[in-house]
Amino acid sequence: MRLLFASLVASLILCAPAFAQARIALVIGNDNYQTPGWALDNPVNDAELMGEALEAIGFDVETVTDASLEGMEEAFQRHGERLSLAGEDAIGFFFYAGHGAQSEGLNYLVPIDAEVYNEADLWREAPNLGLLFRYLERAGNSTNFIVLDACRNNPMPAATRATDGRGLATAGRVRGTLIAYSTAPGSVAEDGVGGNSPFTTALASLIQQPGYSAETMFRVVATRVEQITDERQLPWTESGLRGETDFCFAGCERNDEERSESTALAAVIGSSSVAALQGFLEAFPTTKSRGMVEARIAEIEAPAPSGEGRSPQAEGNSAAARIEQAEADEARIKDVLGVEMSVSKLLMPWKSDPKQIAARTGMNQRIIQGDASYARRDDSLFVFFDPGASELSDAAKSNMSAFVEWVADEHAAEHGARSIAIVSACDSTERTISLCRNRGTIVYDYLRGQLGLPDNAIIPPESWGRHRQLSATDSGLDQDSLNRYAIIQLIED
């Protein structure tokens, strides 16, 4: 996979902090429904993903999958007992994925053995949320979170649901409790095009990231789900949390690396550019948001519903059009989140690199402007080397991959043979001319062998040695470091 984010922070490593309050969670996922046509693909996967995420932030998690009516009611009771034993300061968390329905303003979570043909069947064969509330009230702990990723393509008779036949109702009893719904009241949630639902994917990612208060975190989850689903699904939250201090699942402090990742994610998650999203994963290989980003990629690449067009990315637009679309997507994200980051800088990070700018300026002074064969475009890329070395650094490979993806591929396709030139050089202290020449050869081989540029598009490397040094002028950069390079130049007919 090509690297697109070389200038961003390399890896994010999260360390789970210690928490003073006991954290108790119950997670239920039902997908193997016994009634024909009711089966779902992802709730059990969602339960397992949420269980892992909650354990990572200090919760003692009980996970129940494919539960019967008796199994769900017993799990509710155990959850209440565990919270009661943990004391009034305990934090409770309940997560449910599967079918849900409402009747007379009450929400019912449907077990796998339910046979529901009318409203009375629902009352008898599915526990309602009120039962869980009773156990929580008896436990007496001050703070609880209830998360319902339900209402997925609900197959139950219309008599068992709201007047519009869709979704859950608001709970209406939330003091000391935050209730998060995967979609707005009266709406249906998506099961997801991958292994998890969009809501659970976003929640499992963000709940492990520090710096978010609980209410903010669920608000950001809602925003991410809207972006992943192109606003087909709009999560909803009711909060009755109390107190004067914020509760943060993964801690309220965030370091510079974590802020960098968060900013980069906000800039690309709503983009229709698969390349930008893949680039984020390359830049942050340990990110907790991998599932969310992959879900967005799957959403972009999935066939459009009947009667709808494919996304610009799916239609294979030019690099310029893809960047333009990414910028348009970014404007919407900025409006929602107040993020200030240029998508074009994420896609082409070398553009704003001071060392690249200084080197390009110096190179322009060296090019003979009157020679038509050297009518090189200004969007060239410098590949810089360490003293006495000709090996490519990870940063150089990343920049080259992005350069080919967003610039060179399109240029070679448009201008054909001998449209890309490579010139290499050494600094004033490097005495071996073969070192300079080898730098050009290394770049040449990487462009062809690893990045797939056509052989005939690239002019065999030439070396300027130490005779045409680039001036650092008043850039503040070390001139020797500026002259250990191989430049990839684009030539126009």
Q: Tell me, what is the CATH class of the largest domain? A: Alpha Beta
Strand order, largest beta sheet: 2-1-3-6-7-8
- How much of the sequence is in beta strands? 5-15%
Mind telling me the C-alpha Rg? 28 Å
- Structurally, the number of domains stands at 3
Principal-axes geometry comes out as: elongated
Main structural class = alpha/beta
Q: Return the average pLDDT rounded to an integer.
A: 78
Secondary structure tally: strands: 12
How would you explain this protein's 3D organization?
This protein is elongated. A hairpin with a 2-residue loop joins strand 4 (about 100-105) and strand 5. It has three domains: about 25-240, Rossmann fold (3-Layer(aba) Sandwich), CATH 3.40.50.1460; about 255-345, no CATH class; about 350-490, OmpA-like domain (60s Ribosomal Protein L30, Chain: A), CATH 3.30.1330. The protein has helices at about 45-55, 70-85, 120-125, 130-140, 200-205, 215-230, 255-270, 275-285, 290-300, 320-335, 345, 355-365, 395-415, 435-450, 480; strands spanning about 25-30, 60-65, 90-95, 100-105, 105-110, 145-150, 175-180, 235-240, 380-385, 420-425, 460-465, 485-490. Mean pLDDT is about 80; it is low at about 1-15, about 160-165, about 305-315 and about 335-340. Helix 5 runs antiparallel to helix 9 (about 290-300). It contains 15 helices and twelve strands. By secondary structure, the chain is an alpha/beta fold. The longest helix is centred in the C-terminal third of the chain and has 22 residues, at about 395-415. A six-stranded mixed sheet has the order 2-1-3-6-7-8, with helices on both faces. Strands 9-12-10-11 form a four-stranded mixed sheet, with helices on both faces.
